[in-house]
Amino acid sequence: MKYAIFCYGQEGVTDALTPAQDEAMMRTIGDTSEALRAEGKLGASGRLMTTSSAVTVRHGGAQTLVLDGPFAETKEHLLGFYLIDCDSLEAAIDAARRLAKGRTPGALEIRPLRTFTDPSPRA
Amino acid sequence: MSELAWLEATLGASRPRVLSALLRYCRDLDVAEDAFQEASLRALERWPRNGAPRDPVAWLVLVARNAAIDRARRGARLEALPHEALLASSEDAEAEAMERIEAADYRDDVLRLLFMCCRPELAPAHQLALALRIVSGLSVKEIARAFLVSEAAMEQRLTRAKRAIAERPLPFEAPGAREREERIGVVAASLYALFNEGYSASSGALHIRAALCDEAIRLARLLVALAPAASEVLARNALFLLQHARTPARLDARGEIVLLEAQDRARWNRDAIAEGLALLEKARWLGAPGPYRMQAEIAAVHARAERPELTDWRAIEACYAELERLQPSAVVTLNRAVAVAKLSGPAAALALIEPLEPACARYFNYFGAKGALLRELGRPEEARAAWAHALTLANTLQEAAHIRAQLDQLGAGA
């Protein structure tokens, strides 16, 4: 069984950290990640860029709708996670539109990744 | 990360929203600031012990509001409070207040606070000082140091600015769409001034004041949160990030200016560049090009070039041409001339900038650039004259030192 772990926190707070503090935080997280990886438990991981870089593709009606900003309504929950590699935002939106096909009504949020590592979990 | 770092970051990040919410209860900036200060002290005392609240902003508003009420009871200045606020210490009232704050959108309050500090009636220097004091929470001492004035002078400047805004209070009604846009525009212009002051000081011994750039970026993020779909707001944030990414390479070990072409690009901040490029791409997707978009596009071309010779000068020239169309100015044309020099040679560039001389008579960069073009054209005497004139217009010691180094090289080469 594989799990996705989504990290929630206050963006304003991480933004308010000094570079040195941010580095220290990432070093600690990095150490833990290394340990988990050595145990064969950790696969791809990434840090998301600022929520202001987010775009949302809404679907469910006759047509999909591309919206600015993160998908933030708490009545609905995050259901999946994809990693895609595209040359442009346009292409990423296109991929999301195709991924939206056949689903129950919901939303796919596209966010540029800040950092990205992609080893496969051993187990 | 240390607990203190997290606490400080949380308090700093919460400050604009807490203060702007508090202003609804106590209409006086000083009272709101004191109350925030008191709530911060309590947070530093309690959060490490009891763990942080799930909604630090709501917690701080509540505690600060109660602190203000306590003070009012002790006879401190406070204007009429809603009666229900006096009940705020009970559990029910606490839960209700939390919910109300969670549900409320802080946007208009925060925008109001920003706009209050950046109102056009205030002198630009007062706007920036006030925003740094009120919204960013920098100490008077820090702001005084950033603007190279004495603490007493800065204190006086802030007192005067506060008095001016107290005399003409802003209404609390939510602004209409058009007014909101106007306010955002006013705040944006101040942030741009703040960033530029940090990026290239208008006077003094310190050429770069990174702390001002950091604050401008932080405030720009705040503005993006207020207007998430505004292409220019996003583009401005991207511009700040892309420009500031170069800061670690802009001065050498001796503190002297390193021109873009000579900068060690390995020292550029790659995280800031990546974020800037992502925001720029979204700004591009959101709307038609505006002045900030074009400036961010130019910064992005530089950021993408791994080596100076890989710079896409054609793209830069096109961006400046578009910027000239959107916002014609001698400074923009001067910058376009740098790209023209790369594409078509120094003679074409010189022909482009010579008509600008009357408009640029007091502009350091004009004579710096003119000198460089003349030298490239093998006219060292005229280059010397241009640079000698630039020297008289230098704004900072570093600018002067940079021109002197050019003059020395000219002497050595001749």
Strand order of the largest sheet of chain A: 3-2-4
Order of helices and strands of chain B: HHHHHHHHHHHHHHHHHHHH
Mean of residue pLDDT of chain A? 71
Q: Main beta sheet of chain A, described?
A: 3 strands, antiparallel
Keywords:
heterodimer, A: 123 residues, alpha+beta, three-stranded antiparallel beta sheet, two-stranded antiparallel ribbon, 3 helices, 31% helix, B: 414 residues, mainly alpha, 20 helices, 71% helix, elongated
Descriptive report:
The complex is a heterodimer of chains A (about 120) and B (about 425). Chain A has about 120 residues and is α+β, with helices and mostly antiparallel strands. Chain A contains three helices and five strands; from the N terminus they run ααβββαββ. In chain A, the strands form two sheets. Chain A has a three-stranded antiparallel β-sheet with strand order 3-2-4, covered by helices on one side. Chain A has a two-stranded antiparallel sheet with strand order 1-5. The longest helix of chain A is centred in the N-terminal third of the chain and has 20 residues. Chain A is globular, with a radius of gyration of 16 Å. Chain A starts with 10 loop residues before the first helix and ends in a 6-residue tail after the last strand. About 5% of the residues of chain A have low confidence. Chain B is mainly α. Chain B has 20 helices and no strands. The longest helix of chain B is centred in the first third of the chain and has 23 residues. Chain B is elongated and about 80 Å long. The termini of chain B are far apart. Chains A and B meet through helix 1 and helix 2 of A and helix 1, helix 10 and helix 13 of B.
